[in-house]
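pinging the channel bc i need a second pair of eyes. not urgent but kinda urgent?? the chain im working w is below, pasted from the shared doc
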Amino acid sequence: MNEMAREDLGSSYFSQIAQLPATYEWASAFNVRQWTDVFHELAQRPLIAVGSGGSFSVAHYVSNLHEEMTGHLARAVTPLELISTLPNIKDVGVLLLTASGANSEIQAALRHSAEGGVECSRTRTAHPTGRQIGDRWRVV
């Protein structure tokens, strides 16, 4: 590839491509069994999948998959939609999807969910949202 074409694609693209072997190694070693109980619980009721940006695409996919596989209703929403239009979220599963958890909107959605009695799960112990909610989190 000539240098001009390389510049047009941007250096972040090539940086990300260079990380593929490490990403594949991480994904191959990831223990998906830790999610078994979480997904089994979520499959028992309707689901609200919450995400913003790239995580909203995942939320949309998860909600479609949930409806197809469980027969329960599911909806993909942004964090602000969860807070503003869904005041009563009892008896539904809420899945918050975020890359880092540092986004103030996803943190507010987590607080809203926890205050509504929804059990929350996370994938990391050192997570910005976990410090705010404390033992309301279940680590998966």
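so Strands lie at 47-50, 74-77, 93-96, 120-122, 137-139. and The chain has a mean pLDDT of 77. — does that match what u expected or am i reading it wrong
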